[in-house]
Amino acid sequence: MLGRRMKRLPLLLAAIALVGAGCAEPEPVPSVVEAAPEEVRMPLPKEVRGIYWTAQTAGTKRGDELLAYMRETGLNAAVIDLKMDDGELAFVPDDETLRAYAMEQPVIAGLDALTRKLADAGLYRIARIAVMRDSAYASAHAEAALRFPKGSLWRDNTGAAWVDPADPGVAAYALALGREAYARGFDEIQYDYVRFASDGAISSIRYPAYDGTLPKEEVMRAFFKTVGGTLKEEGIPVSFDLFGMTFESVDDFNIGQRLIDAYPHADFVSPMTYPSHYAAGFQGYRNPALYPYEVPTHSFESGKAMLEKELGVPQGESASHIRPWIQDFDIGAIYTAARIEAQIRAARDAGASGWMLWNARNVYERAEYVKE
Fold first, then answer.
1. Please, what sign has the CA dihedral across residues 190, 76, 111, 54?
2. Angle of helix 111-120 versus helix 61-73 axis, rounded to 10
3. Kind of pairing, strands 124-130 and 325-327?
4. pLDDT at residue 38 in the model
5. CA dihedral in degrees (27, 29, 31, 32; nearest 10)?
6. How does DSSP assign 50-112, residue by residue?
7. Residue 268 — φ and ψ, nearest 5°?
8. Closest among 268, 230, 211, 292 to 13, alpha carbons compared
9. CA–CA separation, 291 vs 179, rounded Å?
10. What is the pLDDT of residues 42-84, one digit of tens each?
């Protein structure tokens, strides 16, 4: 049903009509804040206008092309994968305990040089870390890997192996990698795949740590507190990627992921409100992908109301901690500039702190990103 890109709840965020004529001037580059003799921290932009980079993009000339695109269009934040799709680290860690998970020939040969270059360009730098979907970690840790009844690694429909959210080593690894990324120059740590596995033969999973009786949301609540709460205490900005439907219901959808459990332990929550990832019939829309403003708007408003009801968080306050992912790929409909801009307008109208563009191939449709 789910998968980053959810099966029956397809890939999240949206857009609708054009927002205005003309192009506004990009915001001035923010000043660099000195954090240490050889370290800089970029201030959080008033509105984060982010764009997703794969590790492959970051380590090749494609990164320079995206950087030029960001300068031209007023995008001000780069969200960069630190793992390859199989979970291998795409760079050489300074922390020796992490080196066993690194590629033999990392695609990001110079991580420090990369973060400095992004700072020189005035960009806010976000490290994206996939957690439970991690074939490399699962292969190295039998005590944490999900398995089929006969003992082989359980894999989802894409062939990826997963780890058990209840295993304490999983949270410890996520923390260590987050600290490493921050020390290497990233300004924020963003965790994705923070949930139980889906999109496969779920009933055949054998968990090494999860006892099958504790509600899955309790397991994930503990994870959010351990990882997010710890980083926040250490002064490291942290965010969690969530399915868009977590803003619609307190149900955990059998993956343990709930907005109300993640929100208290994060600086930002990022719902993947891709319109194409909502089931046909959502709010009466035969094809939700055709409603790039209405679909995410409904989730934003539902999420804010949920946080107010369940946690007592005023809607104006919760809005400032919401930073959605925006659909920039063609599923369910052709995602034109107008549809991308509609999603951006939905985020702004909801009072969100910003937004981030998602395209798995890092090929983006040019649109007007800066508000007039």
1. positive
2. 20
3. unpaired
4. 52
5. 140
6. EEEE-HHHHTSHHHHHHHHHHHHHT--EEEEESB-TTS-BSS--SSGGGGGGB-SS-S-S-HH
7. -145, 145
8. 292
9. 39
10. 999 999 999 999 999 999 999 999 999 999 999 999 999 999 9
pLDDT digits (tens, 9 = 90+) for 329-369: 999 999 999 999 999 999 999 999 999 999 999 999 999 99
Do you know the residue count of the chain?
372
The helix or strand, by DSSP H or E, that contains position 125, with its residue range, turns out to be strand 124-130
Alpha-carbon span 188 to 353, nearest angstrom: 14
CA distance 200 to 248: 24
* Strand-strand pairing, 48-53 and 354-358: parallel
Backbone angles phi, psi at 125, to 5 degrees: -115, 120
Give the C-alpha separation, 26 to 18, whole Å: 18
Helices (H), the chain: 55-58, 61-73, 111-120, 135-140, 168-183, 216-224, 230-233, 259-262, 294-311, 315-319, 337-349
- Rounded Cα gap, residues 132 and 137, in angstroms: 9
Question: Which among 329, 232, 202 has a CA at the least distance from the CA of 275?
Answer: 329
Q: Quick one: tokens of 248?
A: 């619609």
Q: What is the rounded distance in angstroms from the CA atom of residue 248 to the CA atom of residue 257?
A: 12
How far is it, in rounded angstroms, from Cα 249 to Cα 264? 17
- In terms of CATH architecture, what is 33-358? Alpha-Beta Barrel (3.20)
Measured in degrees and rounded to the nearest 5, phi and psi for residue 296 equal: -65, -35
Residue 263 one-letter amino acid: Y
Q: What is the DSSP letter of 161?
A: B
Break the chain into its structural domains and give their ranges: 33-358
Phi first, then psi: what are they for 329, rounded to 5°?
-155, 155
- Has this prediction a pTM greater than 0.70? yes
Diameter of the chain by CA atoms?
61
